[in-house]
């Protein structure tokens, strides 16, 4: 297992001019983004303004990620986690190689969901056994690659298990596997529910009970279970309740396992507060709940490693999407601020990546964080669709052509989760500073 970097001296640097006091004048922000910094009202990422980053990249539309902010976020979480709980990073949240390499020094493992992510994870130096390959619809090519690499395949269906056994027999290998269980319970208050009832993810709980006695005759080695019940949850009580239910289910599953297990992936679920009505996950409450959970852990489970798998929570707050104002226009007494970037670079911000009703991400003019707000405006992108909205009816300082417009909380599900080829406006740049 990869050993995380040492704690206090590295993760508690002095941060001059934190943003939180200035953000009192930015009511669209759900929580102060204290990991980022500002100088004289100008946003800094890695010590550089948006214009300086643009000069580095020779690009006027980009994602910028703050290395120190990622480190501090992970350190804050790990300081609350009991020793029995390990931390894995779900690469799909942000697969930008410098980000993955940096996060890899701070966590215990990776979760991947494609052969491309698998190759990326392996090339960071993470040990193969600390890489889990999950997700429905794995191809035979991907199953062979995962087995050849020596990583753990998280099996999502009886059919996938059958195909994996055929590939293992043909290649003369034994597959290391975990069974992803679709339990009867769900993660309450999750933004996206991924368990309980009919789901494309995992093997139904009753089917798992039926499969376990058959594994001894198969060319597989069962080393764990995976129960990812949902994501984007801001309620610590709901997360803890689901984890307690997982413990109860494990006690029923363990006697049927053909060999001693090594780990249980509890999934993640910790959400990010994007909107003004949101409140951050209560880490103190989670810490107290985890302490109680592991102090009362049944004896037959105490040898297991428990894994918390997170993506968005670790990197979202450390990133911004930046673009420039190119036009300001009036239409029927409404002001439109038009930018050179939009939904083709940041689909989630447009409301077309899981939202039922569109709500604004936290946004600002990066060089005017200390200036007063004026009348509401709509911030639009350059695409020929009314869906290309960066912010709607949002109060901002007085806009001017050339201003840097930034979308906060953009370190996850940004560039690779967006249709960058749409209308041929070109790809967005990325940088870790």
Write a structural description.
This protein has about 425 residues and is of the alpha/beta class. It folds into 2 domains: about 10-65 and about 315-430, Lyase, Ornithine Decarboxylase, Chain A, domain 1; about 125-310, TIM Barrel. The protein has 11 helices and 21 strands. It has helices at about 10, 50-55, 65-80, 95-105, 115-120, 140-150, 160-170, 205-210, 235-255, 285-295, 310-315; strands spanning about 35-40, 40-45, 60-65, 85-90, 110, 130-135, 150-155, 175-180, 190-195, 205, 220-225, 230, 265, 305-310, 320-330, 335-340, 365, 375-380, 390-395, 405, 430. Strands 3, 15, 16, 17, 18, 19, 20 and 21 form an 8-stranded mixed beta sheet that branches. Helix 6 crosses helix 7 (about 160-170) and helix 9 packs parallel to helix 10 (about 285-295).
Index terms:
Lyase, Ornithine Decarboxylase, Chain A, domain 1, alpha/beta, TIM Barrel, 11 helices, elongated, 2 domains, 433 residues, 8-stranded mixed beta sheet
Question: Gist?
Answer:
This protein has 2 domains: 176 residues, Lyase, Ornithine Decarboxylase, Chain A, domain 1 (Beta Barrel); 184 residues, Alanine racemase (TIM Barrel). 24% of the residues lie in helices and 23% in strands.
Instruction: State the shape.
Output: elongated
The low-pLDDT segments are 1-25, 187-196
- Could you give the distance between the termini? 27 Å
CATH fold-level topology of the largest domain:
TIM Barrel
Tally of individual domains: 2
How many strand segments? Answer: 21
Quick one: CATH superfamily of the largest domain? Alanine racemase
Helix content range: 10-25%
Named at the architecture level, the CATH assignment of the largest domain is: Alpha-Beta Barrel
Tell me which oligomeric state these chains represent: single chain
